[in-house]
Amino acid sequence: MGKTIAEKILSSKSGQDAKANDIVIADLDFIMGQDGTSPLAIKAFYEMRGLKVFDPLRIAMVIDHSAPSPLEGVSELHRQMREFAQKQGINFYDIGDGVCHQLLPEQGHVVPGDLVIGADSHTCTYGAINVFSTGVGSTDLAAGIISGKLWFKVPETFKFVLNGKLPPGVFSKDLILYLIGDVTADGATYMAAEYTGETIEELSVEARFTISNMAVEMGAKCGLMAADEKAINWVRKHSRRDFEPVKADPDAVYAKVKEYDVSNLEPQVAKPHTVDNVSPIGEVLGIPVQQGVIGTCTNGRLEDLRIAAQILKGRKIHKNCRLIVAPSSRQVMLEAIKEGVLEILVRAGAAVVTPGCGPCVGTHNGVPSDGENVISTANRNFKGRMGNNRAFIYLGSPATVAASMLTGKITDPREFFV
Amino acid sequence: MDLKGRVHKFGDDINTDYIISGRYKFKTLDMKELAKHVMEDLDPDFYSKVKEGDFIVGGKNFGCGSSREQAPLAIINAGISAVIAKSFARIFYRNCINTGLPLIECDTDRIDEGDELEIDLHKGVLHNSTKGLDIPITPLPGVMLKILSDGGLVEHFKKYGTFKFD
Ligand code: SF4
């Protein structure tokens, strides 16, 4: 019987013939923690009587969630991370370097065929470059950095076959929102999602990251894609590590398979307060918005900023709106400066904040006030997510956010792409 | 492990932002302090209602959202002895096992606010004493029972220095 990508990677990393639902203990290729989860992991590391990490080069810690620190309590946690990183000699990214999920692939730490854990739920992002990567908590992170291993239940796989080309003005964000709306927030719980088909092949690697990033919003453990030539070239540009991509066998066994034709897909918006509460843009047109956010690990890449700039070039955002832009990394920010993309956004009225999570998780950088509507390129719109449980968060593509900022209402971006 | 307590009932898709809001999680590692804010956005009086040993009961997809381990730790520190739901989000599931908070998967439609429950984890029995009902529960895999019975993954590592399951 053939195997899925998930079964193959977990087999090779555990040295066992692993099938869905087996429990294996597997070797980890890379381990990541951010500033919301690392402090607890450091505490657990010492409680577990950890002395040295198993391999400093295979570990990174990133300060991105509350960066720069807005509070003295947070500053103390950041200090503990810096101290730990220095003492252990691990890879360390400080404020302004970027969002963890941008940095790991961009800095070449993760490559196709890897098994990776991160103490952050959107670690599934690297599935777009054929990495079995999944989010864990702080205690798993501590066990991982001590032993280089972790226990896994081998997931069953939910395969999404995506046919057709996305129409102009419709992006990978719209596609993944549509899929989440279709299968719901727990449609792939405990499972690996595998995305295949010509739609994926057509997309840039950057656009693919957006899809894998949101796999967890359908409950999935990881969001895997095969590594085609595009992906391999992308990884070679970013990493010097050797790698071997992993493909699913033609006779692999899937728990579920769903096929979609995306040729007529419209822009999609997730409405408050769940990510699977998705509508085509036509149903939400005209809802007033006071704050826009372009950034996060979902949509803060150069391509996303370019799309926003294409719409905002030579224009001004509506007087009732404020737009926050958080480039997903220092490198993205530098390239956006070089290309003039940031200048366009700033002239249009955007407030650019430190590369990192931006206002995504409500710790700093733009907490909305009571009753306000926010339209964001992030991946979550839970009540209270941005720091105020009386605000309302809509999720859309960078194009939808940019277009809505011009009118002060949720706006269809397709008119800018004819 | 025998557990006994009263039910605090919630619905489907209870996410980690409801369990402990991001407003608090970055502020402190003091779990007793965080525990005071458990479920606050859904029920501001929740913490003061809980008696040591009580249960949180949810519907499907309990614990979806972020990987914050503050969620199970705050639940434990609020005095809750187990979480019972139709299904759990997987990172939350792992985090509960790793921090030593028992999870029970079963049909929760016949469990209501205020019901008294008795649970035997090893035998896999849940008895609803208020309604006089036995509800079948899905037993936990061996690896998880082992980590739980060691008192969580920290204690497991203290004992063995690595993963040890046979
Ligand atoms: S950008 Fe948002 S979703 Fe992504 S890692 Fe940061 S807080 Fe999490």
Compose a concise summary of this entry:
The complex is a heterodimer of chains A (418) and B (166). With 418 residues, chain A is of the alpha/beta class.
Observed structural traits:
heterodimer, A: 418 residues, alpha/beta, Aconitase, domain 3, 2 domains, five-stranded parallel β-sheet, 14 helices, B: 166 residues, Aconitase, domain 4, seven-stranded mixed β-sheet, 7 strands, 31% helix, globular, binds iron/sulfur cluster
Radius of gyration of chain B: 15 Å
Specify the CATH architecture of chain B: Alpha-Beta Barrel
Oligomer: heterodimer
**pLDDT under 50 segments of chain B (min length 5)?**
none
Overall mean pLDDT score of chain A? 97
The number of E-state strands of chain A comes to 18
Count of discrete structural domains of chain B = 1
Q: Gap between N and C termini of chain B, in Å?
A: 21 Å
Structural class of chain B: alpha/beta
> Over all CA atoms, what is the radius of gyration of chain A?
20 Å
What general outline of chain A do the C-alpha atoms trace? globular
Please report the number of helical segments of chain A: 14
Helices of chain B, by number, come to 8
- CATH hierarchy: architecture of the largest domain in chain A: 2-Layer Sandwich
CATH topology of the largest domain in chain A: Aconitase, domain 3
Structural class of chain A: alpha/beta
**SSE pattern of chain B:** EHHHHEHEHEEEEHH
List the ligand species: iron/sulfur cluster
CATH class of chain B: Alpha Beta
Provide the CATH topology of chain B.
Aconitase, domain 4
Give the topology.
The complex is a heterodimer of chains A (418) and B (166).
Chain A: H1 5-14, E1 23-27, E2 30-34, H2 38-47, E3 59-62, H3 72-88, E4 91-93, H4 100-106, E5 115-119, E6 132-135, H5 138-147, E7 149-153, E8 157-163, H6 172-183, E9 192-196, H7 198-202, H8 205-213, E10 222-224, H9 229-238, E11 256-261, E12 268-270, E13 278-280, E14 291-295, H10 296-299, H11 302-312, E15 322-326, H12 330-338, H13 341-348, E16 350-352, E17 373-376, E18 392-395, H14 398-407
Parallel strand pairs in A: 2-3, 2-5, 3-4, 5-6, 8-9, 8-11, 9-10, 14-15, 14-17, 15-16, 17-18
Antiparallel strand pairs in A: 1-7, 12-13
Chain B: E1 2-9, H1 16-19, H2 22-25, H3 31-35, H4 46-49, E2 55-57, H5 70-77, E3 82-85, H6 90-99, E4 103-105, E5 116-120, E6 125-128, E7 133-136, H7 142-150, H8 153-160
Parallel strand pairs in B: 1-2, 2-3, 3-4
Antiparallel strand pairs in B: 1-5, 5-6, 6-7
Bound molecules: iron/sulfur cluster.
Iron/sulfur cluster binds next to helix 4 and helix 10 of chain A.
